[in-house]
Design goal:
Oligomer: heterodimer
Number of helices of chain A: 13
Strand order of the largest sheet of chain B: 6-7-8-3-9-10
CATH class of the domain at 13-201 in chain A: Mainly Alpha
CATH superfamily of the domain at 13-201 in chain A: ABC transporter involved in vitamin B12 uptake, BtuC
Number of strands of chain B: 12
Strand content of chain A: under 5%
Radius of gyration of chain A: 19 Å
Order of helices and strands of chain A: HHHHHHHHHHHHH
Order of helices and strands of chain B: EEEHEEHEHHHEHEHEEHHEE
Distance between the termini of chain B: 24 Å
CATH architecture of the domain at 13-201 in chain A: Orthogonal Bundle
Helix content of chain A: over 70%
CATH topology of the domain at 13-201 in chain A: ABC transporter involved in vitamin B12 uptake, BtuC
Largest sheet of chain B: 6 strands, mixed
Largest sheet of chain A: none
Largest interface: A-B, 32 and 35 residues
Distance between the termini of chain A: 40 Å
Radius of gyration of chain B: 19 Å
Structural class of chain B: alpha/beta
Shape of chain A: globular
Chain lengths: 277, 272
């Protein structure tokens, strides 16, 4: 990449915003993702992000010009419904997720198709759009990074214990239920605020791929967390830069960088395993 | 042997029993599992809960830990109702791990979660953590496992790690749920030897749920046979005869000759 291009890229205000949001959300998604994947909540977060589509549609329908607030509110409602159904019915977890996911996507599409002139907007929500990232998104992303990572690290022992064995955690005096609720709320905020960058369809990738790649490289949780955060950072920044250069949607570019890192980490892990059995 | 009376035990004196349960009833999704369980367990015992599948052994253990809410009846530990302060004196060794192997938690890190003093384990060096963990780790002989990922241990290794975790919490009461499920016979023998040794050295009270009657016979000091209610209780040699086991298991349980290390064969029962 030539110096001139690099300077031009960094002098564009929308690129500055996009890179800064990527700087916040990439590592944050990857950090939460370590626990999301270990707790088998990848599909859960996917359902929350798809719920956001209905939130966006409702927001436009109600006349919001920026549907961030209705999107967050609706996703929180979806998360609440999921948790309630999981706790109070005997339905299988992935049945519940599939019902709620398809239901909220259907609702979103029906509402959006009744509105005129939102086709471009939908595209940007589905696949992520660096042009759409505003200063408000950056402020929210930064606050979320600070609050969630502080909360996570100050409750790391409890969260790890719940992840390893919920009943053991309970017997050690960890308030398992409350911790779960707080985790779900934090996850909902992280997922919905990453939609600008990654898009509804691909947001889960940044929660899943960096921790999975980090697993190949690490012998313990500390290493996994550090590698995951690092890989999340590289992938999100790399994706934003790639999106600028190839004039492609931002979400797919981030996922492609994630995949390259994943394959590299997997091969490296295999190689290391061979040399030292 | 008496069936379900506490006459012999309640004279223990001023020290409250470690576990006292009165008329405990638990119904899970419409099925009554515990139908009025009475327990009185004095300190310093290795107590085995035996009974057929679905007899409520694990449910009772979960109720003792406050993991299972009780519909009726009362449970007291150390003479107090279950609350966070009492539960701090209790350690639990669960049956198995439900953890994903995608979670890289190492044995060292896992054990650090048990120790209040290793609260900020993420920021501490391995050497500093080892110093805090070492007594328990050496006691259970798992020094060579510290760097291993928790999700990839064998059944026997996992149980030892869980016991070390329990010991790090300095409990007075240790509850084990099917501790040797999925462990081979020699591993099982050494595991129960370890539990017996820890019990004597630390003066613990141990309650374990077990399927393996021959191990129970050899290592427990008290046996409770459960089948919705406590069918019989007492010393292993009293409870573990074909007659009283039939009451618990509801089927004919054939006694068989078991050859002990110390020579003479004991006649004690075996469930097919």
């Amino acid at each position: 990449m030539g110096m001139a291009i690099r300077i031009r890229m960094l002098s564009e205000p929308y690129m500055q915003r996009a890179l800064l949001v990527a700087l916040c959300m990439g590592p944050l998604c990857a950090l939460m993702g370590v626990f999301v994947t270990a707790r088998r909540m990848a599909f859960f977060s996917d359902t929350i992000s798809h719920g956001a589509l209905a939130g966006v549609a409702l927001g436009f329908w109600m006349g919001f010009s920026d549907p961030t607030v209705p999107m967050i509110v609706f996703s929180l409602m979806v998360a609440g419904v999921l948790v309630w159904l999981q706790e109070n019915t005997e339905l299988l977890s992935d049945t519940i997720l599939a019902v709620v996911l398809s239901g909220s996507v259907a609702l979103g599409i029906v509402i959006l198709s009744s509105l005129k002139g939102y086709r471009g907007e939908i595209q940007s929500y589905l696949f992520g759009d660096i042009l759409a990232i505003g200063w408000a998104d950056l402020r929210l992303g930064f606050v979320l990074l600070v609050v969630v990572s502080f909360g996570l690290f100050s409750n790391l022992t409890r969260l790890t214990l719940v992840t390893a064995h919920p009943e053991l955690a309970h017997s050690c005096g960890v308030p398992v239920r409350i911790l779960n609720y707080v985790f779900v709320v934090a996850l909902t905020f992280v997922v919905t605020l990453s939609i600008r960058l990654l898009g509804i369809i691909l947001v889960t990738s940044l929660l899943v791929i960096p921790p999975a790649a980090a697993r190949s490289l690490s012998c313990n949780l500390r290493q996994q967390i550090c590698f995951s955060v690092l890989l999340g950072l590289v992938a999100s920044l790399g994706g934003v830069v790639g999106s600028y250069h190839f004039d492609a949607p931002c979400g797919p570019m981030i996922v492609l960088v994630c995949l390259v890192l994943f394959v590299a980490a997997f091969l490296f892990g295999r190689l290391k395993g061979r040399v030292r059995p | 042997m008496k069936a379900s009376t506490h006459a012999g035990l309640s004279r223990a004196g001023a020290v409250p029993p470690v576990i006292e349960a009165r008329g405990v009833e638990v119904t899970i999704s419409g099925h009554p599992i515990l139908k009025g369980v009475d327990l009185l367990i004095p300190g310093g015992q290795v107590v085995a809960l035996i009974g057929p599948n679905g007899s409520g052994k694990t449910t009772l253990l979960r109720a003792l830990l406050g993991l299972q809410s009780v519909d009726r009846g009362q449970i007291l530990l150390f003479g107090q109702p279950l609350d966070r302060r009492v539960l701090r004196r209790v350690a639990y060794v669960p049956q198995k791990l439900a953890m994903e192997s995608g979670f890289a938690l190492s044995v060292r890190e896992f054990l650090a979660l048990a120790s209040d003093r290793a609260l900020h384990w993420f920021w501490k060096s391995h050497a500093a953590l080892d110093k805090l963990l070492m007594p328990a780790v050496e006691e259970v002989q798992i020094v060579d496992l510290l760097d291993r990922p928790l999700a990839k241990l064998s059944g026997g290794q996992f149980q030892r790690v869980m016991v070390a975790f329990a010991l790090l919490r300095n409990p007075d009461l240790l509850l084990l749920d099917e501790p040797t499920a999925g462990v081979d016979a020699p591993g099982e023998y050494t595991f129960y030897e370890l539990i017996g040794e820890l019990q004597r050295r630390r003066g613990l009270t141990v309650v374990l749920v077990s399927h393996d009657l021959s191990m129970v016979y050899r290592h427990a000091t008290m046996v409770y046979a459960l089948n919705g209610v406590i069918c019989c209780e007492g010393k292993p040699e009293d409870v573990m005869n074909a007659d009283s086991l039939k009451r618990a298991y509801g089927i004919h349980v054939a006694p068989y000759q078991h050859h002990h290390h110390h020579g003479h064969g004991h006649s004690h029962p075996h469930v097919e």
